Amino acid sequence: MKFTIKLEESDEGGYTVQCLELPAAISEGNTKEEALKNIKEAIQLVLEVMQEQAQAYTEVFKVEVTNA
Fold first, then answer.
1. What is this structure's pTM?
2. Residue 62 has what pLDDT?
3. What is the pLDDT at residue 58?
4. In this model, does residue 10 exceed pLDDT 80?
5. Which element (helix H / strand E) includes 38?
6. Is 9 exposed, middle or buried (0-12, 13-18, 19+ CB in 10 A)?
7. Is 5 exposed, middle or buried (0-12, 13-18, 19+ CB in 10 A)?
8. Residue range 8-27: mean pLDDT, rounded
9. Which string of b and e fits 22-49 if b means at least 16 CB within 10 Å?
10. Beta bridge partners of 17
């Protein structure tokens, strides 16, 4: 899976990074490389939580959406 990442320099130093498709996936790092490594871990954790939550629902469906 590929995700869109927003990487910004932090006023306090280092970088903040957020996944645009998964707003709950936010991280930071002292370098760009560290921030990008950390956001991958954050995305994995968010996806795991979402999967656990989906299992608690009575009906779950998957739909496919294509870009125009």
1. 0.79
2. 84
3. 75
4. yes
5. helix 32-56
6. exposed
7. middle
8. 97
9. beebebbbeeeeebeebbeebbeebeee
10. 7, 27
